[in-house]
Design goal:
The complex is a heterotrimer.
Chain A lengths: L23 H25 L4 H6 L14 H8 L4 H32 L3 H14 L3 H14 L8 H21 L4 H9 L4 H30 L2 H6 L8 H7 L9 H32 L5
Helix pairs in contact in A: 3-12, 4-7, 4-9, 5-7, 7-9, 8-9, 9-12
Chain B lengths: L1 H6 L1 H29 L2 E3 L5 E3 L3 H8 L2 H36 L6 H9 L6 H16 L10 H29 L3 H9 L4 H12 L1 H17 L2 H6 L11 H10 L5 H31 L1
Antiparallel strand pairs in B: 1-2
Helix pairs in contact in B: 3-4, 3-13, 4-7, 4-10, 5-7, 6-7, 7-10, 8-9, 10-13, 12-13
Chain C lengths: L14 H4 L7 E3 L5 E5 L3 E8 H6 L10 H13 L1 H4 L2 E3 L10 H7 L1 H11 L12 H13 L13 H9 L3 E7 L3 H4 L7 E4 L11 E6 L3 E2 L7 H16 L1 H10 L15 H11 L3 E3 L9 H16 L3 H21 L2
Helix pairs in contact in C: 5-13, 10-11, 13-14
Chain lengths: ~300, ~290, ~325
């Protein structure tokens, strides 16, 4: 299913050397206007984060005026309220970093084993993993929350195991796909030099896999960082919340809706994501193209 | 290499076992339990009563109102999946075609179009709830007033989120179409429209089927956005299947068995769509 | 309750049950066994901004029953532009906030029906006081600055802000809101009972009760159950425990040794009882299920968007037919 015809790199306009026509300025103008609308919702969040909560829900499109401007009060409320947005941010970071690291390490090794050891159980495992990719989360959510509860996997430090299990399919699929194209000769050379499988994997195979590792890493990060339902059902929710959970909680988890705190916490969440995106854009685009198979 | 790794169980334990164990915990066991539980009536797992296929029967022939809600959410979801697939792909393809032309700012525009993708469903839903309710005030309505408002709201939200993602895939596909081929066709007297439909579209068919697959499954499985944007609406008027299952589980006492049975059917539905789509794609690509 | 009573230990002989100020605060099952013990007593009604009432040229003494409440509210609503404030805060029906009406307001027709029929619970509600429910709901949604059709996206926080900002006089909520509403000044706070035009409501007070009970897992090991009960006894009798309940959690708890909490809304509610007003009991535990509340809430929201006899009929169906159906379903 991986589409080998699709280039995994997008050429930037500068790389394509065609002379620009003067009429193209019209396209530039039209797209500038469309893009202004496209980013507007994010700008709106930023503007509203400085407004008093009633004026957020009443007139979301207005700029703050003397009466509705509250300075940094919303940010203060987001961080210092009973919801404790800051520790949610920390939880989200811990969960995302640990899970992605665990997934990358375990599934890349696993993919190597599956590709090199061709026997009934690796095949069965591989197909089961592929199968897991089409199963919607609702199918397993209730039993999963019971299993993780019994096994005490309900903390930010242990939930990565759950992510490894439920996210194995995509990662394994992308890694095996890549490894299929890696010739055996390279490894055999290492073997002749006296390397065992472990050393061969880490010193020879892993470096070759680097581009795929980055792609998988980016896809898994985007998934886990934004995931709502799995951590909501698995974590001990009274003690550990993640960013999406807190933002949802601010909207009525305790019978109230804190629009000011919601706007402020969204600004705090979105800003680093956008900065990171602008820095890592090339890798992210590549990750999307490599991983367009996840369903 | 194969012999060494196969012979010594150490390598099995090191390479395969961690993922295998996690996979058992995170998928295989819950999946098996899920199937098993769909034949029971229960509220907590230590108090289950075997009811055979009754849960499944209840979904279709049980309480009239409940059956109506499920039917409504099925059609809502199906219609949404189809319409969002068409809208997102048509828009993304058009944007991609335009942004592969060479005019100033295309890189920046691609960057901006892709941006909403980085935000999760909860943030997206929250942002659009404020925004769309702000617009609807003018019509004295809200997102939950009726199913249509919820439907259109979700459609706008998903277009905003996914157009950039699909556009990236289309841009890559379009750049794979060689300019020489288009030039040759032009010399043979083909116009722009003919080049688009006779050359470009057939050649990017793999990208099209991939994007269609992604959008249609996303449409069927949509949950976070539905939960935050409308919460299902008044009287379940904008409750999609995934949310309906969630609500059956967690806001009703004694309905968990029926919820699990619904989840099994939902899995079969999504699985069937994925398989049909895969077969379709494979046959197209074989040609 | 029928759903979960089998999971709870019988607390009839537990020390904590004996510490209750009134055995009404013990939750008994159909066989009379105590399955839960209330730990916090709360009051709700219409929190009123007395200063604004006076500013509008009225006084709290005028409000004695539904008719007089309506007269005052209608007058304020009619002069809202001139006064700069309206009668009722927005009755937000966002799913975060609709409990104020689908549960708390719905308690009143249930209370009066139980009282009229002299029962404490029923599996088949008749809805004999639903007309009153409609009257008070009409009043809430009409005499307010917010367009009724927009209520589905309004929240309790919006209403709270309107009240604190002095944009509205009446705010249906409870003692737990004290921290937010004290901003208008303790001396300006007053209670208005929720009148639904029922006979004898001149003597009606605010609604006091509980829906939060402590239960002990009956399936746990005996020594764990005993340890839990010992701990609970310590909480409600020791200096440290009672102090935590009253001052850290701001609970008014129904135990003999409980300390008094510093909450003006609670004090005002106690004064009403002392003045001879009958507190309205909380009958939420007798509501058949969460589903019933949600259905009533949805119907109320739909009615607000388009008030007519037809849409009210949907409320009645959800209330009366839904009650019987949910009771039957949860048996």
């Amino acid at each position: 299913m991986a589409d080998n015809n699709t280039p995994t790199k997008i050429k930037s306009a500068d790389e394509i050397k065609v002379k620009r026509k003067p009429s193209d300025i019209i396209f530039t103008i039209v797209f500038t206007i469309i893009c202004a609308f496209w980013v507007y919702p994010l700008i709106m969040v930023l503007i509203n984060s400085f407004k008093e909560k009633l004026s957020i829900s009443r007139d979301p499109f207005n700029l703050p005026d003397e009466k509705s401007f509250v300075g940094l009060e919303n940010f203060d409320r987001a961080v210092n309220s009973q919801m404790d947005f800051f520790s949610a941010l920390v939880n989200s970071l811990i969960i995302t970093v640990l899970s992605v690291a665990l997934i990358l390490l375990c599934t890349s090794m696993c993919a190597y084993f599956v590709i090199r050891v061709n026997t009934w159980y690796t095949k069965l495992f591989y197909y089961l993993c592929l199968f897991s990719m089409i199963v919607p989360f609702q199918m397993i959510m209730f039993p999963l929350s019971k299993v993780t509860d019994i096994l005490q996997l309900n903390t930010p430090f242990l939930i990565p195991i759950v992510y490894l299990g439920f996210g194995a399919g995509t990662a394994l699929f992308m890694f095996t796909n890549f490894l299929k194209s890696v010739p055996l000769e390279i490894e055999e050379a290492a073997m002749i030099d006296g390397c065992g499988p472990i050393k061969t994997f880490f010193s020879v195979v892993l470096p070759i896999m680097k581009p795929t590792i980055i792609s998988v890493g980016i896809l898994e990060t985007m998934w886990i960082w934004n995931d709502y339902l799995l951590p909501y059902l698995v974590l001990r929710i009274r003690f550990y919340k993640t960013v999406p959970i807190v933002i949802q909680y601010f909207q009525g988890g305790y019978g109230k809706v804190e629009w000011g705190a919601i706007m402020a916490s969204m600004v705090i969440t979105i800003t680093p994501i956008v900065i990171l995106y602008l820095c890592l854009q090339k890798h992210i685009v590549k990750g999307v193209l490599n991983g367009a198979v996840k369903g | 290499m194969e012999k060494v790794m196969k012979k010594n169980p150490l390598y099995f334990c090191l390479f395969l076992l961690p993922t295998l164990l996690a996979f058992l915990i995170g998928f295989v066991i819950p999946f098996g339990m899920g199937i098993y539980m769909s034949f029971f009536k229960f509220n907590t797992i230590d108090n289950m009563e075997w009811v055979g296929l009754d849960n499944f029967v209840q979904i279709f022939t049980g309480d009239e109102k409940e059956v109506g809600i499920v039917a409504n959410s099925f059609w809502f979801t199906a219609l949404f999946a189809i319409l969002s697939t068409i809208a997102i792909n048509v828009i993304a393809f058009m944007v991609a075609v335009l942004l592969t032309r060479n005019f100033g700012g295309t890189n920046l525009f691609r960057t901006i179009f892709f941006m909403p993708n980085l935000l999760g469903g909860v943030l997206l839903g929250t942002i659009w709830k404020i925004l769309l309710n702000g617009v609807l005030v003018g019509m004295k309505q809200t997102l939950t007033t009726n199913g249509t408002n919820g439907f259109i709201g979700l459609l706008i939200l998903m277009i905003w989120q996914q157009v950039g993602y699909m556009m990236i895939i289309y841009v890559a596909g379009l750049q794979g179409v060689s300019d020489d081929l288009k030039e040759a066709a032009r010399i043979d007297g083909a116009n722009n429209k003919q080049i688009l439909f006779k050359i470009t579209i057939p050649l990017v068919m793999p990208s099209i089927s991939m994007c269609t697959f992604l959008t249609i499954t996303n449409g069927f499985k949509l949950f976070d956005q539905n939960l935050t944007l409308t919460g299902g609406g008044i009287n379940h008027n904008s409750e999609m299947l995934a949310l309906n299952i969630y609500n059956t589980f967690y806001s009703r006492v004694g309905w968990k068995g029926i919820g699990q049975a619904k989840a099994v059917l939902f899995f079969l539905l999504v699985g069937a769509i994925a398989i049909i789509q895969l077969k379709f794609t494979q046959s197209k690509e074989a040609n | 309750m029928a759903n979960w009573k089998d999971y709870c230990a019988d607390l009839s002989d537990a020390a904590i049950t004996k510490e209750l100020t009134s055995q009404d605060f013990a939750l008994k099952d159909s066989e009379g066994k105590v399955r839960g013990v209330a730990y916090v007593i709360e009051t709700y009604g219409i929190i009123t901004n007395k200063a604004l009432i006076e500013k509008a040229g009225h006084s709290m003494d005028e409000i004695k029953d539904f008719e007089s409440l309506k007269a005052v509210a209608d007058d304020i609503h009619a002069r809202a532009a001139e006064l700069g404030f309206d009668a009722f805060t927005s009755a937000g029906m966002d799913s975060s906030s609709d409990w104020r009406f689908k549960t708390h307001l719905a308690n009143l027709p249930i209370y009066y029906e139980y009282k009229a029929d002299n029962i404490g619970t029923t599996e088949a509600i008749k809805g004999s006081f639903l007309d009153g429910y409609r009257k008070i709901w009409d009043l809430y949604i009409t005499d307010s600055a917010t367009e009724p059709a927009l209520l589905s996206s309004k929240t309790g926080s919006d209403a709270e802000q309107e009240f604190v900002d002095g944009q509205a006089v009446f705010f249906q909520n409870g003692t737990w809101e004290y921290d937010a509403v004290k901003a208008i000044g303790d001396e300006n706070l007053a209670w208005t009972p929720i009148y639904i035009d029922a006979d004898g409501e001149e003597n009606q007070g605010v609604c006091t009760g509980t829906e939060n009970y402590l239960c002990v897992n009956g399936n746990a090991a005996d020594e764990d159950v005993k340890a839990t009960l010992d701990f609970l006894e310590w909480v409600v009798t020791s200096e440290e425990g009672t102090d935590a309940l009253a001052n850290k959690m701001n609970f008014v708890s129904p135990f003999k040794k409980a300390k008094e909490a510093s909450n003006t809304l609670v004090k005002l509610a106690n004064e009403m009882v002392a003045a001879g007003k009958t507190p309205v009991s909380w009958n939420f535990p007798t509501m058949p299920s969460e589903q019933w509340k949600n259905d009533v809430g949805s119907a109320l929201t739909a009615y607000a968007a388009n008030p007519s006899d037809d849409t009210w009929e949907a409320v009645r169906v959800a209330f009366v037919d839904g009650w019987a159906k949910e009771y039957a379903a949860n048996k």
